[in-house]
Structure formats: structure tokens, C-alpha cells
Design a protein that fits this description.
two-stranded antiparallel sheet, alpha+beta, 21% strand, single chain, 2 strands
């Protein structure tokens, strides 16, 4: 099982607000999006516009 985590804050990604440019990542200590395989995570990471952090 995989999830996306912010390196600086340690919070988990649970969504993305696509209304803004650049996109705003919604993070939480309690909620996280989970993925079954690494390829799905990598594709979603790019689609959401996540940075290196």
C-alpha cells in the first residue's frame, strides 16, 4: 500500500484543489489517499502537480 506524504510537514495528501494555479495540495495528519501499486502513485503525483517536497 502506498500514500503521498509531504517531506517538510510530515502530513499526508488527501486531495488537491484544482481551482487554483498552481494547484493547492490538501494535507492532513489523519487522512490519506492510498494506492495499491507504485505506478498509480507516480501517475497521480504528476497529475496533481506535486513538487519535490
Amino acid at each position: 500500500m502506498y500514500a503521498i506524504r509531504n517531506k517538510k510537514t510530515g502530513k499526508w495528501l488527501y486531495g488537491t484543489d484544482f481551482r487554483f494555479n498552481p494547484r493547492r495540495q490538501l494535507t492532513s495528519y489523519d487522512a490519506a489517499l492510498t494506492f495499491g501499486d507504485r505506478q498509480s502513485v507516480e501517475l497521480d503525483f504528476q497529475r496533481r502537480g506535486c513538487g519535490k517536497d
